[in-house]
Specification:
alpha/beta, six-stranded mixed sheet, 16 helices, globular, binds iron/sulfur cluster
């Protein structure tokens, strides 16, 4: 095993639930709708799989040549699970063609405040994601892999360290591993921020003119890949592209991990989607027995859907795309009837505005103003002209940030204005807000720059 490093430049306030290895309380995992289709959480799902259990369940990682690994990944069409859904094979192929010594990074810095899928994988299935990273590195001829996670995730670090010790004891044919931790700030999990931090810079998004896979901050081709993506590679090496394709929703290879939050029975539950079904069918199993007021899909910078639409929608990228939505990082936030969706929109917009890395004018000046206008709307003090001002402002700053953060926030706000237009109209009419709870549903984790 290599070294472990943290990085300076930020301080982080971690309000996340700490989880010690073996503790099951915060790690409810489910396979749905068909447990037999589970790939990542196949077998004994409630506990951590040490190397022995992992090998019993999945078998040893087949020894494959670099070309065989690359071909399998390409045939599978596996898309990244970090949010953007970029095909892994394209990334790897770009780095391979560039040559040199590629840098390989597994991104576990799940900066979505409510998402737990990657941490859950690291806690329960560490060897599956390490197998995938090992195979991906082999396909590039890379001899080292960095694993990046949040400094506050003590249990994730413990689980990974233990897994690396187990692998070293078993003398697996592994790359040299490096553990590296950083802040739980929203934009610190962006791929260029992660690559920068691993290269010794600050964990903030970088201005880029070429893709990381061509040239990263170290000057070498750099692959930053999400932990769930790597776990799927670990499965793919065993079951092949046909096996992976037969699992999960209809569109795209492999199952999907989603984290449920908001008005569900156990916020933080991670579900492995193994086949076809609607959001309504999924949510009913998790304590949502009536059509909710609204559902946020794909993360805090995802897409708002009105409850009725979401309830009847099949959970898969093809169906979501018809509404301009995506599963993104896999977060599904539920706002039940009786709670105000606009309050949650304002809450999330304010949080995301505060999470800017403070480098670009549109982000620094524009996002707080967008958050202020959305908050006024939620509080019932906005008029139609403020909504027009909000729409103008989103158009003015769109495409002007160095990274996608402002555009993602804009897309989230626009989806709320269009998909929840009945809520917007109600707040503008002065009819008041039905929400008397006075608290927020969607959880946050804050970090500040030092
Ligand atoms: S757009 Fe915002 S988050 Fe992205 S680099 Fe610029 S200031 Fe940072």
């Amino acid at each position: 095993m290599g070294h472990e490093a943290g990085d300076g430049g930020w301080t982080t306030e971690d309000r996340g639930a700490g989880v010690t290895i073996g503790e099951k309380v915060h790690l409810a995992t489910r396979a749905w709708p068909d447990a037999d289709g589970a790939v990542l959480f196949a077998g004994e799902a409630e506990g951590r799989m040490d190397l022995g259990l992992h090998l019993d369940q999945f078998g040893p990682l087949p020894q494959r040549s670099a070309q065989e690994v690359a071909t399998l990944i390409e045939e599978s069409g596996l898309a990244g699970r970090g949010g953007a859904g970029f095909p892994l094979a394209v990334k790897l192929d770009t780095a391979r063609r560039k040559g040199g010594r590629p840098v390989v990074i597994v991104n576990l810095s799940e900066s979505e405040p409510a998402s737990r899928k990657d941490a859950t994988l690291a806690l329960l299935r560490p060897h599956l994601l390490l197998d995938g990273a090992s195979a991906a590195a082999r396909s590039l001829g890379a001899t080292e892999v960095s694993i990046r996670f949040h400094a506050g995730d003590v249990s994730v670090r413990q689980s990974l360290k233990l897994a690396l010790e187990e692998r070293a004891d078993a003398e697996l044919d592994d790359p040299i591993w490096h553990l590296s931790s950083g802040p739980r700030r929203y934009v610190a999990g962006e791929s260029s921020a992660v690559a920068s931090a691993v290269a010794g810079g600050l964990a903030i998004p970088q201005f880029r003119t070429v893709p990381l896979a061509v040239r990263g901050p170290s000057g070498r081709p750099t692959i930053v890949s999400n932990a769930e993506t790597m776990a799927h590679v670990g499965a793919l090496m065993r079951i092949g592209s046909g096996g992976l394709e037969s699992t999960g929703p209809a569109s795209g290879a492999g199952t999907r991990l989603v984290t449920l939050t908001g008005g569900v029975r156990a916020p933080g539950t991670v579900v492995e989607i193994t086949g076809e079904g609607t959001f309504g069918e999924l949510l009913q199993l998790h304590g949502v027995h009536a059509v909710p007021a609204a559902v946020l899909v794909g993360g805090y910078a995802g897409t708002w859907l009105d409850g009725e639409t979401a309830w009847n929608l099949t959970i898969d990228e093809e169906h979501l795309a018809t509404l301009g939505a995506s599963l993104g990082c896999g977060l599904i936030g539920v706002v039940p009837v009786g709670r105000c969706a606009m309050v949650e929109v304002a809450h999330v917009a304010t949080y995301l505005a505060e999470q800017s890395a403070g480098q670009c004018g549109p982000c620094v000046g524009g996002l707080p103003e967008i958050a202020r206008l959305v908050t006024a709307l939620a509080e019932g003090t906005a008029r139609r002209r403020h909504v027009r001002q909000l729409i103008r402002l989103t158009a003015e700053i769109e495409g002007r940030g160095a990274c996608s953060h402002p555009d993602a926030v804009i897309a989230m706000v626009r989806s709320a204005l269009s998909m929840l237009s009945h809520e917007v109209d109600r707040h503008l009419s002065g009819a008041g807000c039905a929400d008397t709870a006075g608290s927020r549903l969607l959880p946050l984790v804050t970090g500040t720059r030092s």
